[in-house]
Design brief:
Elements: H1 9-21, H2 24-31, H3 35-47, E1 55-58, E2 61-64, H4 66-93, E3 96-101, H5 104-109, H6 112-121, E4 125-130, H7 134-142, E5 148-152, E6 161-166, E7 168-173, E8 184-189, H8 194-205, E9 210-216, H9 219-227, E10 233-236, E11 244-247, E12 259-265, H10 273-289
Parallel strand pairs: 3-4, 3-5, 8-9
Antiparallel strand pairs: 1-2, 5-12, 6-12, 7-10, 7-11
Helix pairs in contact: 1-2, 1-3, 1-4, 2-3, 6-10
Amino acid sequence: MPNLRKIDPLLLQALVAIADGGSFGAAAEKVGRTKSAVSMQMKRLESLFASTPIFEQRGRTKRLTEQGEQLLAHARVILQMNDTLWHKMALAQGPETVRLGAPDDYAYALLPNILERFGRSFPNVQVELTCEPSEGLSARIGRNELDLALVTRRPNDDISQVIRMEPVVWAKARGKPLDMTQPLPLAVFQPGCVSRAHIIEACTKANRPYRIAYSSHSLAGILSPVRAGLAIAAIALCSVPDDLDVIEPGPDLPEVKGIDLALMRSGSRGQPVFVQHLMEEICESLRVAA
């Protein structure tokens, strides 16, 4: 059987967006990624054709080479055929569903752009989004109640696919100082959360007195007392809202170990291709954003 070379459709989509928008920046807005992410995608695409450059520098801008224009023409055909195929299959099979799980802070901070792009590619696929702590999502994956789950990787977990390391930072209310001479009033996730264990470990190693003032299963439950100036929290950097201040570690605040964002998928066989597509979209987006 011949060795088939595969081109990621997301790379072709970005190429078409660059051609239609006239620049990498315009393409980034169209596909819902950053300009640097689109640039990285084009580097990956060019690496597939190492001896055939796709872009050439003309002044301060990049233009398609003759070979790049040929690739663009084929890309349009491939993407059109892909869209046509999925539309026909969706009509023939009826409504389809993908079951996705994520803690509420990841769902709020990381998933909107991903779901938007997935919705454009598969407008007839319904997404059932379950939000609960990573421990519960892992159990649901084990019971095949979810197709995919974006979770915080737990120690000794050899099943999930690590996507990136996310820093954990201290966050406090803006304009509401805390008395750092007293034990740290912490707002943390409930027992079983990896970041909670990292926070307690950091304070213990640094001999920093603390007290668990508030705990919750949800990010909203943690941020409420933090916004009121009643507690301080150490949370994933991606989850820090704009109205809170990030505080650098120092004598009064120990550095907290980061967490691994990971993706789990159901062990059931015969999953539809759109589940694989969503998995690849999540991995691609979060790795690039790291």
